[in-house]
Amino acid sequence: MEYGIWSVLPPIIAILLAVRTKQVFISLFAGVFTAELIISGFQPVTALNTSLNGIVGVFAEAWITKTIIFSFLVGAIITLIQASGGVEGFIHYLTIKTKTIKNKRGAMMLAYILGIVIFVESSITILVSGVVARPLTDKYKVSRENLAYICDSTSAPVCALIPLNGWGATLLGIIGVQVTAGVISGNPVEILVKSLPYQFYSMITILSVFFYIWTGKHWGPMKKAENRASKEGKLMRDGAIPLVSTDTTEIKTKEGVSPHMMNMLLPLIVLIFMIPFSLYITGNGNMMAGSGSTSVFWAVLGSLVFSGILYISKKIFTLNEYMNLFYKGVGGMVPVASLLIFAFAIGNSINTLGTGEYLASIVAGKVHGGFGPAIVFIISGIIAFSTGTSWGTFAIMIPIALQMSVAIDANIFAAIGAVVSGAIMGDHCSPISDTTILSSMASASDHIDHVETQLPYALLNALISTLLFLAVGFWG
Description:
Layout: H1 9-21, H2 24-39, H3 44-57, H4 62-83, H5 86-97, H6 104-117, H7 122-139, H8 144-153, H9 156-161, H10 166-180, H11 188-195, H12 200-215, H13 220-232, H14 246-249, H15 262-282, H16 292-313, H17 319-332, H18 334-353, H19 355-361, H20 372-387, H21 390-407, H22 412-429, H23 434-443, H24 447-475
Helix pairs in contact: 1-2, 2-3, 2-18, 3-18, 4-16, 4-17, 4-18, 5-15, 6-7, 6-8, 6-12, 7-8, 7-23, 8-23, 8-24, 10-11, 10-21, 11-22, 12-24, 13-24, 15-16, 18-23, 19-20, 20-21, 20-22, 20-24, 21-22, 22-24
């Protein structure tokens, strides 16, 4: 059944409510309920029942269950490396022993560099850069909103530009289907590589983050947040609620333990390098064909096992102390995991309504070839903003963009770059996006404050990207 314009209503309600009330749980549920109300033919009791069942039903999909468990387990890792003295030791090494980081710019550059070099998985990138850099950015009075922006804007863009990860595997699979179907011809790997120079939004975003860090020049809501942090010493606005339990942000090094940065670095190294290894295994020898969700799940488990052996063998913790901290860290992630469950639930409901397909159908086959890349970019952004998923946008828009490009004799590489750019842009702007939620969690920022301060920067980058796609469409 086609729901037409009605399919756009649930995400609009969820997003507007989230911005207006700053209560993301209630807003997401309102979006789910509205979607189910439309699907049920406006029968409230039925809609309430299917809404609750839909929230429980997200666990029917293995990758979603792994992602939610992953968020719990990451909370355990964060707590353990803090209590082991790893974070304190790392900060001591950078600020006192080597004096590598001496100021606010250096603290932000640490988060930026970690976001660039860790390109194996967007969630890992966000969490590592946020958790490791946060004590330093707090010390030098960087607003939590700014840290969330840095984490969010160096995760998906980097993973998309260096697709030796689950992002690359997903894009290759979608492109490969179009090659097999005869829509386009060529090698999927070669096609993906040739589309990378057209990921304008990703490149502009990475460069703009560097510009804001290096110059210290901000504008809009972010400028207000930075002025508040530097002049008043308030890392968050009064009344803001950090999207992480205070239990996990205030974990101190265990009494009697000498802080050492290797207590943090070794578990993180295992975590990071387990990703490509797991992609290789799950892809039967081909990293680009591996399972992203399974690889992340294995990596977190591997890191926890390794850290347990490391800390217990060094007599940092007893087994009971290790497990108590493990449970404390898991408990601290309950708000984040709950938000992810609701975000996935509204994503499933919106998928049933066909919101993405409806938005794409509005312009498919109705535009001049020169406008093609720019229109694909804008529609992909709207779909990702409305659904909260970049990968879902890839699945919807790449087939449409390629078929449209062939029909109007447009640049297919630019079309793929436009879809990826638009999907990441919409994801950055959306309060119901999982990566936006994780960025708020990693930086311990108020979620809606993060969305509101990042939005103007994302929209400016989107405007520049649109102009570049127009240039490619008409003169490229």
